[in-house]
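Practice problem 4.
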């Protein structure tokens, strides 16, 4: 391939290096010039162009990239069509990415014109996420170079997206005097959330004394009916002969590795029992934050073996504290500014303190309060609004006629607030990063206030609880991250989001929105004082 300025008379078949304008015609970069194109350019006074002239044995950038991609052996990956000298490859399902680094290095050593970039070894991937890209840097490349690369690619599997499997997991939690049941309950919820993200299921739990024999008995029992057993010790492992590793051996199993060079996660134990994997979880695994337990659990659920040598090799990159998630090349994950937040508007209550009338149907400036609230939700940056109905559902539906909201009917609304939370969140789309719980009886909350909460949530990357406040006092609405959705599924009775915020230990950001955060209209006096008119 020759590259540089070319007289326009000799430019037929050349590939433009830069976009070029001829009168009203514009030829894009990488456009191959035809005889007609040359005539148009000459008529416009163009005397030369900067272009690439392909030799007979050259392949164009798209053809070369496509041929290389088609020569690769891989699993669980979809190939996108070539464009601008690039072929992107995407995971066909969620899982763990594996790559033959020696093959990638060999390909990239052939010639700088041909490149392959991939995610890191054992990176977790989502369905549709880009995992690798083949890029031809110049406009064309010698077919001999492409042949050299395809010969390397014929040597075996170059990479794979190993899909998560729907494994069944049994959990053991040991108990010592003073350990709170709430800590054990939270551990279950966090573990369920970890398994849910990869398709696994927590099937059973055993709570035992923190002693070798009862833990061994529980492990043997759970291993018979599950694919994996996870043990949470009430006390951290302090010796390689401590309760958890000793219990695995007493049950007839083998300890593969006790301790790992990942922080947090140092005190993990990995073993086998009756052909099933047993993980002694480190204490940090009671938190939803990433730790060494995630590395081992996710690989096992993806069907990958984890050996003592594998764990010993996790030290480089194993310091997880304060390490941000890196964006993927060329096709990043959704930016923080694009994180989707759904609104669940609670409108199922009986207004019992009103003595009969439904406060949500009270008129404010001639409009039902519930409609006023829904319109403000729809006017915000939220991706959608779900209205939970129960008491007088037909009247509430009628008051919201014509609005672009979804309805989630809650037939169990008399059982308490938790039932409405669960009913609304069940309607959220899978790509919702969080949910804002909006009470239907807060006339002072405006669309701009809701936007302020959403903006604060997005700035944290969707990992914090965001709460409206007034003069330093917490109020409503409250925005909850997706990581709390499994915990919401366990709520009972008249328990709401405040309980979760206090129990789950997530970061909480208070956003001052003014008096509207604390003005609700539970009583006739409060409603009339806020400017409302009750309707029978």
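Answer key:
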């Amino acid at each position: 391939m020759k590259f540089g300025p070319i007289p326009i008379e000799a430019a037929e078949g050349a590939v433009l290096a830069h976009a070029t304008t001829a009168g009203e015609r514009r030829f894009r970069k990488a456009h191959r010039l035809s005889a007609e194109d040359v005539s148009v350019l000459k008529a416009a006074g163009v005397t030369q162009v900067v272009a690439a002239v392909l030799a007979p044995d050259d392949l164009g950038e798209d053809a070369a990239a496509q041929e290389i991609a088609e020569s690769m052996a891989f699993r669980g990956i979809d190939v996108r069509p070539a464009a601008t000298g690039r072929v992107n490859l995407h995971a066909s399902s969620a899982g763990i990415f594996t790559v033959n680094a020696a093959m990638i290095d060999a390909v990239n050593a052939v010639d700088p014109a041909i490149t392959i970039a991939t995610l890191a070894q054992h990176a977790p991937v989502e369905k549709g996420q880009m995992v690798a890209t083949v890029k031809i840097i110049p406009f064309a490349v010698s077919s001999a170079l492409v042949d050299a690369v395809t010969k390397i690619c014929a040597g075996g599997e170059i990479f794979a997206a190993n899909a998560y499997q729907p494994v069944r997991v049994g959990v053991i939690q040991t108990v010592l005097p003073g350990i709170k049941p709430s800590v054990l309950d939270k551990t279950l919820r966090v573990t369920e959330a970890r398994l849910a993200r990869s398709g696994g299921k927590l099937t059973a739990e055993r709570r035992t004394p923190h002693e070798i024999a009862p833990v061994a008995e529980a492990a043997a029992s759970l291993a018979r009916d599950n694919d994996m057993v996870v043990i949470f010790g009430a006390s951290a492992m302090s010796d390689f002969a401590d309760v958890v590793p000793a219990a695995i051996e007493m049950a007839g199993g083998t300890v593969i590795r006790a301790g790992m060079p990942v922080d947090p996660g140092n005190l993990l134990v990995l073993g086998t029992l009756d052909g099933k994997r047993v993980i002694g979880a480190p204490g940090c695994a009671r938190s939803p934050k990433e730790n060494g337990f995630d590395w081992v659990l996710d690989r096992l659920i993806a069907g990958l073996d984890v050996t003592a040598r594998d764990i010993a090799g996790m030290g480089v990159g194993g310091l997880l504290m304060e390490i941000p998630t890196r964006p993927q090349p060329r096709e990043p994950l959704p930016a923080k500014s694009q994180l989707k937040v759904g609104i669940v508007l609670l409108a199922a209550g009986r207004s019992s303190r009103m003595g009969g009338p439904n406060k949500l149907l009270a008129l404010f400036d001639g409009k039902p309060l519930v409609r006023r609230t829904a319109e403000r939700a729809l006017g915000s940056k939220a991706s959608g609004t779900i209205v939970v109905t129960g008491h007088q559902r037909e009247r509430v539906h009628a008051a919201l006629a014509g609005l672009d909201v979804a309805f989630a009917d809650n037939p169990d609304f008399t059982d308490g607030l938790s039932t409405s939370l669960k009913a609304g969140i069940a309607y959220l789309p899978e790509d919702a990063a969080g949910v804002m719980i909006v009470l239907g009886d807060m006339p002072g909350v405006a669309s701009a206030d809701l936007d302020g909460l959403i903006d604060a949530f997005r700035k944290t990357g969707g990992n914090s609880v965001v709460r409206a406040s007034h003069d330093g006092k917490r109020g409503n609405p409250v925005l909850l991250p997706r990581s709390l959705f499994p915990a919401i599924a366990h709520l009972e009775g008249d328990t709401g989001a405040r309980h979760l915020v206090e129990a789950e230990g997530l970061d909480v950001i208070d956003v001052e929105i003014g008096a509207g955060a604390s003005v609700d209209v539970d009583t006739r006096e409060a409603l009339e004082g806020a400017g409302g008119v009750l309707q029978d």
